[in-house]
Design brief:
Strand content: 15-25%
Order of helices and strands: HEHHEEHHEHEHEEEHEEEHEEEHE
Radius of gyration: 19 Å
Shape: elongated
Largest sheet: 7 strands, parallel
Length: 252
């Protein structure tokens, strides 16, 4: 098997399972571990995967975006810590926005016993809060994206545009010092951007693997956020790079 074919297969495996291991790939393809490491370096240079200890994880792009099942399996322990820390940042907010994604769904679980009005594009978050006695849920209308079970397009934008929200919890596919916050889909970027505009305070919730990454559509600047909540997996030096742009960084 030539290297291009092998690298395409490796990328396919990474996008299907969420992670690939050097040893497993070497056995699968019958090649040396150094050959696999070289393949992963090539894919990392092309911004298709990110190297992690012992293997690699896929990066999201205009051509690839992970779905709900993938997001519910990857970085799960870290996402639970992030959600718990983020839920402690309400600071008197009475109206909040919950973004699409799995971590906002976890935040919904943490705040289900509060007295709040929750605006969300996420069917996952709305479902979690459906039976909460103290929470009023306003679910944005629009076209539902099957990949993330969230609504987009002009119906969602119009509804958001009529609101003033105390606090928005937002996720991202990539955050970098150079390009700010990015996501693969223009329709998703538009909803996120509108949520940034219509909220008084903004908190980012993102696993460490999102930092230093860039996707297709920019929807906000790092300085638009008062706090970035991530995991202890993000190196302190990297956290300081983002704090220099304005927000505090919580490593949960």
């Amino acid at each position: 098997m030539d290297s291009d074919t092998r690298q395409s297969r490796i990328l396919e495996y990474a996008r299907t399972s969420g992670r690939v291991e050097v040893g497993g790939l070497a056995s699968e393809f019958g090649v040396a571990t150094e050959t696999i490491r070289r393949d992963l370096r090539v894919l990392a240079d092309r911004k298709l995967v990110k190297r992690v200890h012992g293997g690699a994880i896929p990066l999201e792009s205009a051509a690839f975006e992970s779905g709900v099942d993938y997001r519910s399996r990857v970085d799960l322990a870290q996402k639970h810590r992030i959600a718990a820390a983020a839920a402690g940042l309400l600071h008197g907010a009475e109206t909040i926005y919950l973004d699409e994604g799995f971590t906002p769904r976890l935040i919904a679980e943490k705040i289900a016993d509060r007295e709040l009005t929750v605006v969300t594009s996420s069917l996952l978050a709305a479902e979690v809060l459906a039976d909460s006695a103290g929470i009023t849920v306003l679910l944005l209308g629009g076209r539902m994206r099957g990949r993330t079970l969230a609504t987009v397009d002009h119906w969602a934008l119009r509804m958001l545009g009529e609101l003033v929200i105390d606090l928005a919890y937002l996720g991202t596919n990539g955050i970098s010092v150079e390009h700010g916050l990015t996501t693969p889909d223009p329709a998703v970027a538009a909803v996120k951007s509108q949520a940034v505009t219509r909220s008084k305070r903004r908190v980012l919730v993102a696993a460490d693997t999102k930092f230093g990454m860039t996707s297709f559509c920019r929807f906000a600047e790092v300085a638009d956020f008062e706090t970035l909540v991530t995991g202890t997996e993000l190196p302190p030096a990297e956290a300081r790079r983002f704090e220099a742009l304005g927000p505090s960084v919580i490593r949960a």
